[in-house]
Design a protein that fits this description.
The chain has 365 residues and is of the alpha/beta class. It has 12 helices and 16 strands. The structure holds pyridoxal-5'-phosphate (PLP).
């Protein structure tokens, strides 16, 4: 067997499966389908397959590149693009996905044309902006008119639902009131087109508390869930929900120590700016034992987003390709060549799984 390569992100697929089952079954109990969102780990195909096998009815991403190739790997569930399509990618959207989220007539026109050319029916969900101010119709009369237009004039598009996105730009919470507002819009859309729509999509991970506490309106029947399945941290870290029933260590970032030396804690010489043009602050606590890890901002996006499993390690800083640790207080006698394990925040997972320098290792136990 070849030696492991570092830096590495280790993915525990069994823990991911358990997380998927947990979220899918809690949602199913409330009549809610789960679209598993894979963008947080750069769309690792095995993650998508595991989510699909454990009950996600749709696999979704903001990037076509992450959905491309999943069919060939045996994924049979519907694929959904959850960022508003670029007009320039309309043909690929139609050929690679089944469903897309939309908010612009010009884009819908391009999708309809592309679907016509490839003799397909592409499904669309209209996005309503309920105040978070990222994507979606702000003018709700225009949303209704757009729905009617798709229904009557765009023959190769099928309008299957309405949805919203919250808590991304404007940090607007997914409350029962916001969900009721969405349901009212769904009913208005149904009245406008004269038939029922299949999906009312109530958002993402941040809507889950309403599922857990039973206050999600019954008409909401689709959630797009990424973070709660792959990390299961946000609801706990930001909102104080107890997520201990989930695995919070599906992903582990591993780096190799390339230098261990005793060095001062305070830089020696006249101080200017660091590699990222910042002026860091140092505390003089004397000579410390330090380890240099072959892992840097290029891989984790910033050392604030990673934390060592060994609680006695202090992360001091990082530059593009190095992370500097204080290991003075560690019980373990770290040596050059040893591997240090880190847990990650969502942002660091996004960077590390997208970095060409980081090796992905899948484990199944
Ligand atoms: C990223 C994203 C999601 C998933 O969000 P999580 O917080 O990871 O559950 C859902 N919908 C849209 C439109 C997104 O961009």
């Amino acid at each position: 067997m070849l030696a492991d390569q570092y830096p590495q992100v280790e993915v525990n697929l069994e823990k991911l499966r358990e997380n998927t089952r947990e979220i899918v079954s809690r949602c199913a109990a409330k009549g809610v389908e789960v679209a598993g969102v894979i963008k947080g780990c750069n769309g690792i195909p095995e993650v998508a397959l595991a989510m699909a096998q454990e009950g996600c009815s749709i696999i979704a991403s903001s990037r076509l590149e992450q959905l491309e190739g999943l069919r060939e790997k045996g994924l049979k569930k519907q694929l959904m693009l959850i960022r508003i399509p670029m007009i320039s990618e309309a043909q690929r959207v139609v050929s690679l996905t089944d469903i897309s989220l939309n908010s612009e007539e010009k884009v819908l026109e391009a999708l309809n044309l592309a679907a016509q050319e490839s003799k397909k029916i592409h499904k669309v969900i209209l996005m309503a902006d309920l105040g978070d101010l990222r994507e979606g119709f702000w003018d709700k009369d225009r949303l209704m008119a757009c729905g009617k237009w798709i229904e009557e004039d765009l023959e190769n598009l099928q309008l299957i639902g309405i949805a919203t996105n919250l808590c991304c730009y404007g940090s607007v919470l997914a409350t029962k009131e916001k969900m009721e507002e969405l349901v009212a819009l769904a009913e208005r859309l149904e009245a406008t087109i004269g038939r029922k729509i299949q999906y009312v999509g109530g958002g993402a991970t941040t809507t889950l508390p309403l599922v857990f506490n039973g206050t999600l309106p019954p008409r909401i029947n689709l959630l797009r869930i990424g973070e709660a399945i792959i990390m299961a941290r946000d609801l706990e870290d930001s909102y104080g929900h107890n997520m201990s029933f989930m695995n919070q260590d599906v992903f582990t970032l591993k780096g190799e120590i390339i230098e261990v030396k005793h060095k001062p804690s305070y830089p020696v010489g006249e101080l200017g700016r660091d590699a990222f043009a910042e002026a860091p602050v140092f505390e003089d606590i004397g000579i410390r034992r330090k380890a240099l890890v072959a892992l840097g901002r290029v891989d984790h996006g910033g050392h604030e987003g990673i934390y060592p499993l060994d609680k006695n390690i202090r992360v001091l800083g990082s530059s593009s390709d190095h992370t500097i640790l204080d290991i003075t207080d560690c019980e373990k006698d770290y040596q050059v060549g040893d591997i240090v394990d880190f847990n990650l925040f969502y942002g660091s997972l996004v960077y590390s799984t997208a970095s060409r320098n980081v090796h992905i290792k899948l484990t199944r136990a």
